[in-house]
Amino acid sequence: MLLFYVLRRILAALPVMVLVAIIVFAALRLTPNDPATIMAGEDATEAQLEAIRVSMGLDQSILVQLGTWLQRLATGDLGVSLISGAPVLDLIGDRIGPTIALSTSSFLFTMMVAIPLGVLASRKPGHLVDRALMGLSTLGLSLPVFVIGYVLMYAFAISFRWLPVQGYEPLSSGFWAHAQRLIMPSLALSGAYIALVARMTRSSIIEVKGEDYIRTARAKGATETAILIRHALRNAAIPIVTVVGAGVASLITGVVVTESVFNLPGLGRLVVEAVLARDYPVIQALILLFSFIYILVNLIVDILYTVFDPRIRY
Amino acid sequence: MSSLQESGPIRREEAAPAGANAILRAALSSIPAWLAAVVMMCVVAMAVFAPLIATANPTAIAPAERLLGPTSAHFLGTDALGRDTFSRIVYGSRLSLTVGAGVTVFSVALGLVVGVFAGYFRAFDMVIMRVMDGLMAIPGILLAIALIALTGASLATVLVAITVPEVPRVVRLVRGVILSVRSEDFVEAAITLGSPIRRILWRHLIPSTVAPLTVQATFVFASAVLTESTLSFLGAGLPSEIPSWGNMMADGRMYFQLKPGLIFFPGFALAMTLLSVNIIGDVLRDRLDPKMEKRA
Fold first, then answer.
1. Is A290 within 8 Å of B139 when comparing Cβ atoms?
2. Which spans in A173-211 are helix H?
3. Contact yes or no for A291 and B137 at CB 8 A
4. Where does residue A75 rank: exposed (0-12), middle (13-18), buried (19+ CB within 10 A)?
5. First to last CA, chain A
6. Any CB–CB contact under 8 A between A163 and chain B?
7. Minimal Cβ distance to A20: which of B32, B137, B263
8. pLDDT at residue B61 greater than cutoff 60
9. Per residue of chain A (314 residues), what is the pLDDT tens digit?
10. What is the enclosing helix (H) or strand (E) of A83?
11. DSSP labels for B81-99?
């Protein structure tokens, strides 16, 4: 039954993915730019431009182009960069390492910090600890990633010289070399995400604590810790998981900015470089990739619902 | 019928001041909210009276005075082209507030129309909501930088590019409210009595969206200001000679180790503005609509 549910969710996500592909294609094609000019340079002759247009299929009608593009997408063909001529898939492969490292470490850090903070704030709603933490969370939601990033850089890299200012080293050049360059970016990126998840943890635990089964558990003498872990957190999990999924959108935005601040050669830098160079195929592919990751994460969130809430059965 | 029509304008007159009062009372009844309101008024004053407050021309280049520290003439120093940092921050508030207000007005108006359409005329609901799902799945900042970089940056393209990703959230909110109010007895009664659609929309449905939309508008405003400065920071916003907080931070990146103030001063202005708007939004939400969660 669970398998059936999972399959159905995947089928429901597919039209959204196709729609995203069409929106991205339309949005980029409606802009008054000629990819052939970008590829050939400003001083190409009209005959050269025409040849490029024919070879890229740009002389076809817009609907035919959309069809061809969707067809290629379905087979995993993301096209070729207008600037370097390299397949977009290879470019992504070269640059995905730092992005995976940064997003994994930020995600883990967020979960380790945000849920305990949310639990702490929920113990005595309205008291000093709660107010202080919620104030901090408003601050976390308000500070732009690049402001946090530069404050951290100034403190830890320039004043104290504890960490390198910016840059990236792959895991293959040693764990510490790899990790020390990820500390500040992950902290900067996690700020807003921690605030979001901690808030949701707090409010859903407070809500759950008013339920009858918590009173029952308390009446039969369960310890506060047992109530928290076995009853409150488990039942508060669904809104928390939902906000974790929704927060992925801000995490993706944050990745683009953080990689620029700390000069990490990941997909976020790649998309900014591609935009500044007007490299259509790369821009299209990366926007799609990030959107699909968002859809995929939210698909996983939907499936996790059934794990956390046995009442949801399909 | 005639009695229903007569009661219309009277009730609306009663409703309007009560709503405005509730919003006013909500905004002014806590200390952080007061501080936030004061900061916002300062930022607005800065934008409106920029020529009076600024001590220098924000775009005047003076190579002899480049990268100065705080002096009596330039009390936040100068940037790499000798432009006065304080004056650029003052003028930068104009762009931030224009973009914030513009995007808020456009996305609330557009979202209201589309949301009412989806919520009331069920035939369009499915299609509209799937398109909104698709739009929401695309990271807004990526869509915005792509649109701006490819059409050329101008105030109009920046406004459009930031508005597009904000609309779906407003649509979802409005649609939800319309759906729940539509099934209320008094609306069913009005429909049964044969009230024209226009009256039902304006008398019964749209007024119930005002409170949640007011709250949402503050978050749209903050999000738009943040997105604009992020775009400029990434080099995909308005041309760098235009004073904007994001542009100033982008220009300051090369000299950060030498002159951290080039990033910290505009960053502080941006952070204080966002913090104030978010605090005001939180207070409004708690008072007007306690059940609504942030970033719905």
1. yes
2. 175-209
3. yes
4. exposed
5. 6
6. no
7. B137
8. yes
9. 678 878 888 888 888 888 888 888 887 777 666 677 766 666 777 777 777 777 777 777 778 888 888 888 888 888 888 888 889 999 999 999 999 999 999 999 999 999 999 989 988 887 888 888 888 888 888 899 999 999 998 888 888 878 887 778 888 888 888 888 888 999 999 988 999 999 989 988 888 888 888 888 888 888 888 888 778 888 888 888 888 888 888 888 889 999 999 989 999 999 999 888 888 888 888 988 999 998 888 888 888 887 777 666 55
10. none
11. T--BHHHHHHHHHHHHHHH
Tell which CATH classification among 1.10.4030.10, 2.130.10.120, 3.40.50.150, 1.10.3720.10 matches the domain B45-50+83-295: 1.10.3720.10
Contact, A81 vs A281, CB < 8 A?
Answer: yes
Question: What residues contact A69, with CB distance under 8 A and at least 6 apart?
Answer: A21, A25
A173: CB partners within 8 A, 6+ apart: none
The DSSP code for A34 is -
> CB of A254 within 8 A of CB of A248?
no
Domain borders along chain B are 45-50+83-295
- Does A168 or B274 have the greater pLDDT score? B274
CATH superfamily, region A95-308 = MetI-like (1.10.3720.10)
On chain A, the residues whose CB falls within 8 A of the CB of B137 are 16, 20, 291, 294-295
CB neighbourhood size of B159 (10 A): 19
Q: How far is B186 from chain A (nearest CA, A)?
A: 31
Distance CA B81, CA B62 (A): 6
| pLDDT given for residue A239 in this prediction | 84
How many whole angstroms separate alpha carbon A228 and alpha carbon A123? 10
Q: Do B267 and A150 touch (CB under 8 A)?
A: yes
B274 by DSSP, 3-state: which?
A: helix
**Helix (H) or strand (E) segment spanning residue A43:** none
Distance CA A197, CA A108 (A): 12
B105 phi, psi to nearest 5 deg: -60, -50
Mutation target among B128, B141, B254, B291 for the A interface, most CBs of A within 10 A: B141
Tokens of B197: 């659609």
The confidence score (pLDDT) of residue B25 equals 63
The pLDDT value recorded for residue B98 is 94
Does A19 contact B234 at a Cβ distance shorter than 8 Å? no
pLDDT at B257: 83
Residues facing B102 on adjacent strands: none
Q: pTM to 2 decimals?
A: 0.85
Cβ separation B222–A271 shorter than 8 A: no
Max Cα separation, chain A? 86
CB B142 within 8 A of CB B195: no
Query: What is the residue extent of each domain of chain A?
Result: 2-74, 95-308
